[in-house]
Write a structure and sequence with these properties.
The complex is a heterodimer of chains A (781) and B (234). Chain A has 28 helices and 28 strands. Chain A has 781 residues and is an alpha+beta fold.
């Protein structure tokens, strides 16, 4: 008899249980309840997000496989396709950072090679509380080094190049660090595999690691908020074995080449349960499984435990009848288990036997299509200073205008009260761990293995060539919880725009995105409103840049003791470069080149939602939310800037391109000057006139409004530059020259700030290390 | 001349070595499975980087006992050329083909970077086309690259000029700041007594194209092919 406690332990509501009873027409067995609980969990069913996700554009000329499979696939030319996806592993990484992050990488890699693609690049977006937090610095540091160590441990041994990502620190993530892992693989168009259990009577093979009791209810764990008892959930985190995964990769690819495989699916969240249900559901078939045949690591495992185990490095394969021996031999060659554990049926039911008894017998659609879908209530967040809350929120713009008006006067006050030394401010800001070089992080990742990495970590986007062709792929992984907290819709647009700009800066045309939507509890109407707004903003921007969403993941319940994270969508943007020799990088190339900015700073930019506001002015995200406005994202203007930049790089007119983002113009400019791989430092002298100069120095230097790219070009190219940019109808300003005198001089009106570049670069290079090496004895916790 | 690239379970630079030898060095090359025992068709064997057997027990420890390594020992004893890169260097040390051992990096982290090494001698088949004291810009990617050996071994390596590469700065000076992993005496690569077996931590196969940031690894492979060509001509 099922008690209320049992249901609560399974995270199933009374209403959901009643729905199960109605569907089944009887009480479910304990195994069936377990199966329902994971398949109907937020993590697997997307029950709160599904109604919103439908609004995202998912199709386009290049899309070969839209969302719904293990990873999305796009055509990248010459018969090649790229499979990619980003996925969260936030909850496990908080509980056990090293293994949590490691298995996050393992899971996303399996999603890629399940499609038949060999993973060639990985990226990670990771967020923590601040390293100098008064209360939580020690834990935040431990989380950072654990997560980075875990990513390195798994990716390096597996042999995938970890080429980029982002590392962000903000107090808002003190209790809920975010770990989002991205992977991309390459596959020939005719070599794509699907997670479909097709072919009546086809054998179902279990391959890879043995099943243990680890990770039982991991998906359910990731579908609830944390409290004090979170660490007691450590046993729900699995232990990853990258060596085994590497063998699994090689064996799977070899088995796929043999032609004996009809369908293949990895066992990720909810293990055997979700892999078998999803494969049957996609094919409209049923599966008979005999759990006695499942390779087991421990003795005495029950059917319940086997169905819910999340042991890593396992796959489910449907082989063509009669080819199973061949498949098993390939896995043997790689020292892996491969066992027939069931058959494909036409019952459209998942039937699970153990010790001769039928333990579960559920129509597959009950677990997938019939899973609950919630249209959760939305409530527009009230932003202080506002006259009224616009519940429909579809008219943000008017509200913005109101707020801009009210802010104009405030800006003066900031200027007067602090009147800071901007040169000193830049020197400090550039050492902020959010802006400083992330070498401490990426130096622990093998970013070169497989010898395809053309643009190393540290640029706007990483570039990975496709060896067999002249083509290359650019990719970046970006989030901005700060902007999305202030205005989720505009923030999401900015995010897509910035990600597109990043790949444009290395010379790539944006082609598609994957998204990881990190939010707090969907049961709070304010959070669902943020979510809904984010989707609409993202959808609008993706349509503008023609970058459909081909895969993704939603992570709700990033919340501890009632405190949630700010809305933090993260985007993996992939761009295509037709000729790898046209790749450009952010750094200035030589002295005496022209420096220009494509695009102009939004007149609405007030630098209030910026790293400057956070790091120099000490503003928290909540303060920024109260200040209330984010410059609206001008998508059309942005597109013009990006097209101009691409035209200039395709014509080989510009020598460098770097987007203005975190830290604003001053930081971007300094980064262009710094030395990088095979390149020495370059000086720069800038004079700003016209509209820019009319603004306050603070906003001009540190405002983070998008739509701007710093480029450089040689004297001889000035005419072609002007010609191309006129054709692109893109506003621009030639703002100065590169120099060889190792200083950065910026003059705005009559005021000049001048910085020694050597000191500035040192501050940037050591900012993160310095903060990590500050004695933790000074810190509590 | 024919190259063989050994594949152990967990090797992950095998394809990179294969790619460089076939595409850039332009020589015939085959993969060699770890259960293989006959290497008679090869002139040179590359033991690539990666995490053979997951680096379980110790990096290279399990691979050193695999069937192919018994064959590699015979191959080397008969004068065949063996190049061990990164995990390959670790395997050669574990197998006793090279002296000393590679322990955890001094900073305890995996390190991926571009570093400089100085060519200490051209008196090997792997450095014949290089200049003594030439500086190469090569990638490293390892967690256990910190070379250690006892004093007697070090004296022997020094006396016989068997230290082939040392970590240095861009001007060629060895110093602690330019030594990424804490290796004894900045050692980045050594050879055996007969000078036909070389082990090094940097990855020359990752530095054979300007597109990837350096071509300084190329001359190591080219030295080997010209040595083999000269040998064949004799």
């Amino acid at each position: 008899m099922l008690t209320l406690e049992t249901l609560t332990a399974h995270n199933i509501t009374k209403e959901e249980y009643e729905r199960i009873l109605k569907l089944m027409g009887r009480e479910p067995t304990f195994v069936e309840l377990g199966v329902f609980s994971v398949m109907w969990s937020e993590h697997c069913s997307y029950k709160s997000s599904r109604v919103h996700l439908k609004r995202l554009p998912t199709h386009g000329e290049r899309v070969i496989v839209p969302p719904g499979e293990n990873a999305g696939v796009v055509d990248v030319g010459d018969g090649w396709c790229a499979a990619f996806k980003v996925e969260s592993h936030n909850h496990p990484s908080f509980i056990e950072p090293f293994q949590g992050a490691a298995t996050g990488v393992g899971g996303i890699l399996r999603d890629i090679f399940t499609m038949g693609a060999r993973p060639v690049a990985a990226m990670n977006s990771i967020r923590f509380g601040r390293l100098d937090d008064k209360e939580h610095a020690r834990r935040n540091r431990r989380l950072l080094s654990g997560v980075v160590g875990g990513i390195a441990h798994y990716g390096n041994a597996f042999g995938v190049a970890t080429v980029g990502g982002e590392t962000v620190f903000d107090a808002a993530y003190n209790f809920n660090p975010l770990v989002n892992a991205f992977a991309l693989g390459l596959v020939r168009e005719d070599g794509i595999f699907f997670g479909k259990a097709t072919g009546l009577g086809n054998p179902v093979l279990y391959v890879g690691a043995k099943t243990g009791r680890d990770g039982i209810h991991g998906a359910t764990m990731a579908s609830a908020e944390f409290d004090d008892a979170a660490l007691e959930k450590r046993p729900t985190v699995q232990v990853g074995d990258p060596f085994l995964e590497k063998l699994l990769l090689e064996a799977c690819l070899e088995a796929m080449r043999s032609g004996g495989i009809a369908g293949i699916q990895d066992m990720g969240a909810a293990g055997l349960t979700s892999s078998s249900c999803e494969m049957a559901a996609r094919a409209g078939t049923g599966l008979d499984l005999d759990l006695d045949l499942v390779p087991q690591r421990e003795t005495g495992m029950t059917a319940y435990e086997m169905m819910l185990s999340e042991s890593q490095e396992r796959m489910l394969i449907v082989a063509h009848k009669g080819r199973e021996r061949e498949i098993i031999d390939i896995f043997r060659k790689w020292d892996l288990d491969a066992v027939v554990v069931g058959t494909v049926t036409d019952t459209e039911r998942l039937a699970v036997r153990h010790k001769g008894e039928l333990q579960a017998d559920i129509p597959v659609t009950y677990l997938t299509d019939e899973a609950p879908v919630y249209q959760r209530p939305l409530k527009a967040r009230t932003i202080e200073k506002e006259e009224q809350t616009d519940a429909s929120t579809h008219d943000n713009h008017a509200r913005h205008l109101l707020n801009y008006a009210s802010l104009e006067s405030n800006e003066e006050q900031i200027e007067v009260s602090s009147s800071p030394d901007y040169a000193q401010a830049l020197l400090r800001l550039i050492a902020s761990p959010n802006i400083a070089s992330k070498r401490w992080v990426y130096r622990q990742y093998d970013y070169m293995v497989r010898t395809n990495t053309v643009v190393l970590p540290g640029a706007d986007a990483a570039v990975v060539r496709i060896k067999e062709t002249r083509r290359a792929l650019a990719m970046c992984l970006d989030g901005n919880g700060r902007r999305c907290a202030v205005n989720p819709r505009e923030g999401a647009k900015h995010l897509v725009a910035e990600a597109a700009r990043n790949v444009v800066c290395v010379g790539a045309t944006p082609i598609a995105i994957t998204n990881c939507l990190n939010f707090a509890s969907p049961e709070r109407p304010e959070v669902m409103w943020d979510f809904s707004e984010t989707i609409d903003g993202m959808a609008e921007a993706c349509r503008m840049f023609d970058t459909p969403v081909i895969s993704g993941n939603v992570s709700f319940y990033n919340e501890t003791d009632g405190r949630g994270i700010p809305p933090t969508p993260v985007i993996g943007m992939v761009g295509l470069i037709e000729d790898v020799r046209r790749v450009i990088q952010p750094g200035f190339k030589a002295a005496n080149d022209f420096i220009a900015v494509l695009g102009r700073q939004s007149p609405h930019d007030d630098a209030r939602v910026s790293e400057y506001a956070a790091f120099i002015e000490g503003k928290m995200i909540d303060d920024m939310k109260r200040a209330g406005v984010l410059p609206p994202c001008d998508l059309e203007g942005e597109l013009r800037v990006q097209k101009a930049c691409l035209a200039l790089s395709e014509a080989s007119v510009i020598l460098s391109a770097h987007d203005i983002a975190d830290g604003g113009f001053a930081v971007a400019l300094a980064e262009c000057c710094f030395s990088s791989h095979n390149r020495t430092r370059t000086g720069a002298t800038i004079e700003l006139t016209g509209t820019d100069a009319a603004r306050s120095m603070r906003v001009t230097l540190f405002g983070e409004a998008g739509g701007r790219i710093i480029v450089s070009f040689a004297d001889a190219e000035r005419e072609r530059f002007t010609e191309i940019i006129a054709g692109a109808n893109c506003p621009y300003d030639i703002i100065g020259r590169t120099t060889d005198d190792d200083t950065l001089n910026i003059t705005i009106d009559a005021e000049t700030i001048s910085l020694d570049l050597a000191a500035l670069e040192t501050a940037w290079r050591t900012g993160l290390d310095e903060q990590l090496s500050q004695p933790s004895t000074l810190l509590s916790n | 001349m024919k190259f063989g690239v050994v594949i152990f379970p967990g090797s992950n630079c095998d394809h990179d070595a294969y790619h460089v030898i076939s595409k850039h060095v332009g020589q015939p090359v085959d993969f060699v499975w770890h259960r293989e025992t006959d290497l008679s068709s090869f002139d040179a064997i590359v033991i690539p980087g990666g995490f053979s057997y997951g680096d379980y027990l110790r990096a290279g420890a399990l691979a050193s006992h695999s069937p192919v390594m018994r064959a590699v020992k015979d191959f080397a004893a008969n004068g065949g050329y063996v190049l061990g890169i990164c995990n390959g260097f670790q395997i050669l040390c574990e197998a006793g083909l090279l002296p000393g051992a590679l322990v955890r990096n001094e900073n305890l982290h995996f390190i991926c970077d571009h570093i400089h090494v100085r060519v200490e001698t051209t008196e090997t088949p792997f450095t014949a086309n290089l200049a003594a004291r030439q500086i190469l810009h090569l990638p490293i990617a390892h967690a256990e690259g910190n070379y250690v050996c006892d004093e007697a071994t070090f004296a022997e390596l020094t006396r016989d000029e068997r230290i082939i590469f040392r970590y240095c700065d861009h001007e060629g000076t060895t110093n602690p700041a330019a030594n990424p992993n804490g290796s004894h005496n900045s050692i980045a690569g050594i050879c055996n007594e007969a000078r036909n077996v070389l082990g090094l931590m940097p990855h020359p196969e990752r530095a054979c194209e300007d597109l990837l940031g350096s071509s300084d690894g190329s001359p190591i492979f080219r030295s080997l092919t010209s040595t083999l060509a000269a040998k064949a001509a004799r």
